[in-house]
Design a protein that fits this description.
Chains A, B: It comes from Catellatospora coxensis. The structure is a homodimer of 220-residue chains. With 220 residues, chain A is mostly helical. Chain A has twelve helices and no strands. The relative contact order of chain A is 0.11. The C terminus of chain A is likely disordered. At the A-B interface, helix 5, helix 6, helix 9, helix 10 and helix 11 of A face helix 5, helix 6, helix 9, helix 10 and helix 11 of B. The first copy, chain A, binds a DNA duplex (30 and 30 nucleotides) through helix 3.
Chain lengths: 220, 220
DNA sequence: ACTCCTCTTCTACAGCTGTAGAACAGGCAT
DNA sequence: ATGCCTGTTCTACAGCTGTAGAAGAGGAGT
């Protein structure tokens, strides 16, 4: 049995994805979920409570996916101590496929998430609930450390920011028009290309402009 | 003299940055701009018209900045036919500094823009007005072509998506907490590092996994 | 049976929002 | 001055939103 909380918050996510935060009202959620008017208002008296529940639901869904390995923030496996270039290519392909799923099956959740992140700008308490990609961030840092990045923490943050940017661009930006349509092999290939470039860049510092000493260190 | 249209739309941008799209109401704009109640409603009868004016104003401001070279989408100069690695580093530094300005002086505009891009998901007509980063996209493609990228069009799109992602992460995401604070040299340096990695990645295809023939071609 | 408790549904209401139109003011041309 | 026109300010009002509380329904325990 699906709890009523889940029904309500899932409807809220769909609503936000379709109409933005402005469409999120108690009555609209009732209608969208097919529940009698007043239900959402009874469960979440204030609008703030409703939004927090929505954000919590997003976090819970991510956690569930992470556990199930189906549509997590990053379902790359635990890393061997040293990642080879071939490993990185594999990770890039997995990430590309993952992004493509966020663009198709996970589209509503992805859109709702971006709306909530933006909302968190003026409502800091949301940020705590969102935990904002903590899991994927930690994982990215670990991966880049295993791949021998010079500054894995910073590089990990750059990586997730750029990957988020790729996703956002396809979801809402101009990429939605110019890039190959989501759900196609071309889309996955294009995303994989981008992620692979990112990974190689973040693990291999540009040699040409390093002074000899640094260059030797980077190679070692 | 500043036209009333500008006063209204600028107030609207500030409002959206502070409170999100939900805060954008005719009366709130009046109050924010210090105009008598009803003014905004007289200038833009419907809310849709108001939003479109807001988006148009964003586009106009960008165009003005582009012309003045002060805070444009990308104020990198016209490129010489062949870009060297040192040129790329210069572009990275300029882009890092530019992003830092978007985080400080241009913060409201950047936040309002992201809100509008998200809004454009359900209101396609906004996308046309936004032109959504067309200028910077074109410029990125030209730059990557000059730098000898294999597929400059796709690489250009990846580049702007990632740079937008870096910006969004600092503005609204977790980067706002973990990264060095905007306006500092550290922030600029960190962003420059990320952009430099991006540029080198997108212009230099990863050699290790290419077959010898491609490798030779890429080098030439 | 009755009571109590939780969950659910319905209704009320004050305040806000979108939109329209009336009233007003100043300047220009006749 | 008179009339007209553009730009401004004020007011009206229907509909929606957030929030609260009353009314109802069913089940568990006595």
């Amino acid at each position: 049995m699906v709890t009523r909380y889940a029904v309500i918050t899932d409807a809220a996510i769909a609503l936000v994805a379709e109409q933005g935060m402005r469409g999120l009202t108690h009555r609209a959620v009732d209608a969208r979920a097919g529940l009698p008017t007043g239900t959402t208002s009874a469960y979440y008296r204030t609008r703030k409570a409703l939004i927090e529940a929505l954000v919590q639901r997003l976090a819970d869904l991510d956690a569930a996916d992470l556990a199930a390995g189906s549509l997590p923030s990053d379902d790359v496996p635990a890393y061997p101590p040293k990642l080879t270039a071939a490993d990185l290519d594999g990770i890039a392909a997995a990430t590309g496929a993952l992004l493509d799923r966020w663009l198709t099956d996970g589209r509503d959740r992805a859109l709702a998430r971006y709306a909530c992140v933006l909302e968190a700008t003026h409502h800091p308490e949301l940020r705590d609930i969102l935990g904002h990609g903590t899991a994927s961030r930690v994982q990215a840092r670990a991966m880049l450390a295993a791949a021998g990045a010079a500054d894995p923490d910073r590089a990990g943050d750059h990586f997730v920011a750029c990957v988020d940017g790729l996703l956002f661009d396809r979801l809402a930006g101009a990429g939605a028009l110019t890039a190959p349509p989501p759900g196609t092999p071309e889309c996955r290939a294009d995303l994989t290309t981008a992620v692979r470039a990112l990974l190689h860049a973040l693990t291999t510092p540009p040699l040409r402009n390093q002074r000899p000493r640094e260059r030797r260190a980077a190679r070692g």
